[in-house]
Specification:
By secondary structure, this protein is an alpha+beta fold. The protein is built from three helices and seven strands. The strands form two sheets. A four-stranded antiparallel sheet has the order 4-5-6-7, with no helix packed on it. The protein has a three-stranded antiparallel sheet with strand order 1-2-3, covered by helices on one side.
Length: 164
């Protein structure tokens, strides 16, 4: 993605959705000649010792995701931000459970629109599936990554990133 206005945060959203707010963020980035952030790596450290790692690269990656724990590994073969397969592998036994969902690509955004419509109809200001506080947790982590990497969006300066 080489257009600054098309930036996304899917990997970071997945980490903060599962682990919550990090205690510490360490990030490094390299700009792309087109004026976007070309490569970024961020380590999110949590008070309980858990870690989340997110990396974007200059290459065409398979957009997979892996969540590894002491009892199992959950793999999203990708693209992880779209409906598709989920593979759970139990540690030690190698037992694999696979859930297969039709690959609908971006057409599945209608689920998000339907949830927004349900919330509006019910008079809710936010979805119980992804409350506002969860989104703010992701944005705070994103702002800290941007601050450390001096990434500024059009209309802001790098020194003001992450300040409220």
């Amino acid at each position: 993605m080489h257009a600054p206005r098309q930036a996304a945060d899917a990997p970071l959203s997945l980490i903060t959705w599962i682990l919550g707010a990090p205690a510490e963020v360490l990030a490094s980035a390299q700009p792309h000649p087109a004026g976007v952030n070309g490569q970024t790596s961020a380590l999110l450290r949590y008070a309980d010792g858990s870690q989340g790692i997110v990396t974007t690269l200059f290459s065409d990656t398979p957009t997979t995701a892996t969540i590894a724990g002491t009892h199992a590994t959950l793999s999203l073969p990708g693209p992880f931000y779209q409906p598709g397969d989920i593979v759970l592998t139990l540690t030690g036994s190698g037992t694999r459970l696979t859930y297969t969902e039709p690959h609908t690509a971006h057409d599945a955004l209608h689920f998000e629109a339907a949830e927004a419509a349900r919330c509006i109809t019910a008079g809710r200001l936010q979805s119980p599936l992804r409350p506002l506080d969860d989104s703010l947790t992701t944005l705070r982590a994103m702002d800290e990554i941007r601050r450390q990497c001096a990434i500024a969006f059009p209309g802001e300066t790098a020194q003001h990133v992450g300040t409220t």
